[in-house]
Write a structure and sequence with these properties.
By secondary structure, this protein is an alpha+beta fold. Helix content is about 25%, strand content about 25%. The protein contains 2 helices and 3 strands. It has a 3-stranded antiparallel beta sheet with strand order 1-2-3, with helices on one face. A hairpin with a 6-residue loop joins β2 (about 20-30) and β3 (about 35-40). It starts with a strand and ends in a 14-residue tail after the last helix.
């Protein structure tokens, strides 16, 4: 089975050109249910967040939980540092 994936990137200020991957969404190409994971370590995102908008990432994670109707789970995905 093939899967489609999308990185969830945090870009606090597009003019500065800095971004950090904070999550991933994976769905099977046949249209089956997808899954997502957010980073359990947001230190890199906080380091580039001069305007204090990281709370938006945390709120987005909550919306994703509701959208995917996922039961509570531990955050196991670690963000790439490359």
């Amino acid at each position: 089975m093939k899967y489609l994936h999308s990185a969830i990137r945090f870009v606090p200020d597009a003019a500065r050109g800095e971004s950090v991957n904070v999550g991933v969404i994976v769905t099977p190409s046949d249209g089956g249910p997808g899954q997502f994971r957010f980073s359990s370590d947001l230190r890199r995102a906080r380091a580039i967040d001069a305007d204090g908008v990281i709370a938006n990432v945390e709120a987005f994670e909550g919306r994703m939980d509701r959208m995917f109707r996922a039961p509570p789970r531990s955050r196991i995905w670690a963000a790439s540092t490359s």
